Amino acid sequence: MNTDKDDLEPLTPDQGQDLFLDHKSTDCAESTVRNHTYRTNHFVEWCEEEGIENLNELSGRDVQRYRLWRKETGDINNLTLRMNMSTLRVFLKWAGTIEAVPENLYTKVMVPRVSREERQRDEVLDAETARDILAYLTKYKYASSEHILLSLLWETGMRIGGANSIDLDDVSFEDSCIRLVHRPDQGTRLKNGQGGERLVAMTSDLAELLEDHINDRRHDVSDDHGRDPLLTTENFRMSRSTMRKIVYRITSPCYRGEPCPDCEEKPNAKCPDAVCPHAIRKGSITHFLTKDVPVEIVSDRMNVSQKVLDLHYDKRSEEVKLEQRRGYLDNI
């Protein structure tokens, strides 16, 4: 039975936000609570501007007005708007359970649909999201195959084929590097063939993580060619298709407790907000460039020409590039 407005108990927007975040902190990762905080801050700000001091007053029309305000004042794309409205939907659904708003108000939230083509065109795993997912995996799935796979892809920017090709012998803890080798006659290929072969430096954190995985979590199996792969299933070398499935699963916002209306309504459906492995590569390259790593080094490390890197992988905004150039000029 839906709650009638006469049965609601007064609650200010900021008090509602505090209670909501406190509720979420009991069963969500810290990164998820942080994202909820950031997004509900906009809603509380809008309520203040509109003079809404009691959540009881909210209507479906107000929800639509907020959606338009967020889009216009925030100058955000549909993907960002989608996540903002998804969080509002979760917040209002929770508010309905404590009789702060009508129980069905959350159904009035219009979460924008974003086509797969639109998502893929500029699909990039940004650094903040990557850190959130890695923090979640560190806390709940430490040194698991999922944790290793994302850590490898994010830190090195390597392709799925590169991760698939790594054997235990290719990992040198003494030299803190990973050797990528093209072995087509043994079932593992690099995209650029022998031109993709290289040594990739790894940080002490990644080295420690790989060592813990090998010692405690890796399945002790060899492949059909007698090689000992780094990433394994119970019986085989982990395939590229399995790696892709893992990436789609762990980059789904719902995997770590983020709001996702589509998955909530269709629990067995593929999450539309997950990203593909190539989005991790683009995000990693962009992250390195944003941190002022020279283009030549990124090009060699990620095995991509500077021309292709500039055309297809560098997703820095013009403002970020400007500030980086300004930083170099200031040192002259």
Describe the structure.
The chain is mostly helical and 332 residues long. The chain is 54% helix and 3% strand. It contains 15 helices and 3 strands. The chain has a 3-stranded antiparallel beta sheet with strand order 1-2-3. Strand 1 and strand 2 (177-180) form a beta hairpin. Helix 2 packs across helix 4 and helix 7 (145-156) runs antiparallel to helix 9. The longest helix has 21 residues, at 30-50. It is elongated. The mean pLDDT is 85.
How many strands, what sense, and barrel or not for the largest sheet?
3 strands, antiparallel
H and E order: HHHHHHHHEEEHHHHHHH
Over all CA atoms, what is the radius of gyration?
A: 23 Å
Helix content: 40-55%
Separation, N- and C-terminal Cα atoms? 70 Å
Q: What structural category arises from helix and sheet content?
A: mainly alpha
Report the principal-axis shape. Answer: elongated
Q: How many β-strand runs?
A: 3
Percent of sequence in beta strands: under 5%
- What is the topology, as strand order, of the major beta sheet? 1-2-3
